[in-house]
Structures are given as C-alpha cells and as structure tokens.
C-alpha cells in the first residue's frame, strides 16, 4: 500500500526541527532561535497539501445511540444463510456494521449521489445541496470521506470497494480515494451510458458540442497486491443481455 508522500515529508521535517531544538537547547539556549523553530513547526502542522476541503458536520445520532430494530414479519428463511437489509441513514448504518463486521467484508458497491444539483444529496434531514451552492464540492467530499473511511475498515485484507460516479465529481473522487487508500490502490473503469439529453436524472442542460456519455467506477483496494480477480470470459451467446456493457460474466 502506498503512503501519502506529503505526510512522509511533513514527518521528516518535524523530526529535523526536533533535532534542531534539542541542539539549540543544549548549546546556545537562544530563545529567539527556539521561537523561530516553533513558528516553522506551527506552519508545517497547519499546512495541508493535496485535496483540501472544509469538513461539514452531519447531524445524525451518535454511534453510541444507534440501535437497529428487526422487523420480524419481513424476515425470510433462506436455509440458515444470514443476509441483512438495513433501511436508514447510510452513515449511521455503516457505524453499526463497523461494530460487528470490521475486517470481514469482501466487496462493497457504492452508488452515491452524483452531486449534479438534483435533489439527491441531503444533509441533516432537510438541507439539500443546490447546483449553485458554492460549497457543493466541499460538502460532497466531506459526505464521501466519512463513509469511505468506515467502508475501508470493513474490508478484508484483499477486499475491494466499487464506487459509481459521473464526470461531475470523478476528479475529486479519485483524489479522495487516493488519499484514503493510497495512490497505488485506486483504479478507474469507464463505460458508455445513455446520452445526457435522454437521461431524466440529469438537471443541467445537455451539452451538444461535447458529448458527456460516460460514467465511471472507481475501484479502491484495501491492498491491491493481495487482490486477484477470477478470469473473465466472453459468453458464447449473450443475445439475452439487454445492454451492451454486459458481455462478460465471472467464471
């Protein structure tokens, strides 16, 4: 797993400052030099590099008070197999899953709000993000960061997370995933989709000179070197498939 190079540099600089402070204290005891070093140390600690965004607080119940209630009349006996369907706020649900399933999940698929200005991304049960919100990217990144950090902890050592996204946030999402999982643990898949002018989920006006007709799947590995997929073969006759993006199946 690759580490964040800026964090390595920061740690190295702070280590050198500590050595200099120790030397000054033992030899010159010059308070002015110590003050200079403290200023530099403060600046390094406060400085961030890479993807920067303001954290936005979501008013959900604390993890200690999250309780799942079973609806027994909806339970289905599937021969002893344990499957769970959780209906509720996804961050709260992830916090519950983290308590029992940390390090136990093989694959996680996430289909988040695309942050296109549609009424799909909601904060605090009432606050939607509008397309003209100047903090829309910041709020979306804060929203995703919390969930991806917990999802990462749920994965086994060779687990993978698949995140669907379109061109609105693909750049931000890749940077965020590389920050959380490491640059070498992130891949991106691309596939054609419906022409935007026929896509009812989009709220912006269709762009006619540049055709935005692709979506993406960002793959995040817990540790890519430990992850191996089964070989994929082309189905001899896949005429029963209704969409062109499904000509393969897992062997």
Automatic annotation (TrEMBL):
Membrane-spanning segments: none
Domain DNA methylase N-4/N-6: 105-236
UniProt keyword list: Methyltransferase, Transferase
An individual GO BP term: methylation
Protein name (record): DNA methylase N-4/N-6 domain-containing protein
Organism: marine sediment metagenome
MF terms (GO), sorted A to Z: DNA binding; N-methyltransferase activity
InterPro entries in the record: DNA_methylase_N4/N6, SAM-dependent_MTases_sf
SUPFAM superfamilies associated with the record: S-adenosyl-L-methionine-dependent methyltransferases
């Amino acid at each position: 797993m690759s580490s964040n190079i800026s964090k390595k540099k920061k740690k190295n600089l702070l280590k050198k400052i500590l050595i200099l402070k120790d030397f000054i204290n033992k030899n010159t005891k010059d308070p002015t030099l110590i003050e200079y070093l403290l200023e530099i140390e403060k600046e390094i600690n406060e400085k961030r590099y890479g993807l920067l965004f303001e954290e936005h607080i979501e008013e959900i119940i604390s993890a200690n008070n999250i309780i799942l209630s079973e609806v027994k009349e909806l339970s289905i006996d599937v021969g002893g197999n344990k499957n769970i369907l959780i209906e509720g706020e996804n961050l709260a649900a992830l916090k519950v899953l983290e308590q029992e399933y940390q390090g136990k999940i093989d694959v996680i698929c996430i289909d988040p709000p695309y942050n296109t200005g549609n009424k799909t991304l909601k904060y605090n049960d009432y606050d939607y993000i509008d397309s003209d919100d100047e903090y829309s990217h910041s709020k979306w990144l804060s929203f995703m960061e919390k969930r991806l950090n917990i999802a990462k902890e749920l994965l086994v050592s060779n687990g993978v997370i698949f995140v669907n996204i379109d061109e609105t946030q693909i750049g931000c999402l890749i940077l965020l995933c590389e920050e959380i999982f490491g640059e070498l643990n992130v891949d991106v898949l691309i596939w054609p989709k419906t022409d935007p002018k026929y896509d009812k989920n989009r709220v912006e006006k269709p762009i006619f000179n540049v055709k935005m007709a692709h979506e993406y799947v960002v793959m995040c590995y817990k540790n890519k070197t430990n992850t191996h997929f089964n070989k994929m073969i082309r189905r001899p006759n896949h005429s029963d498939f209704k969409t062109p993006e499904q000509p393969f199946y897992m062997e």
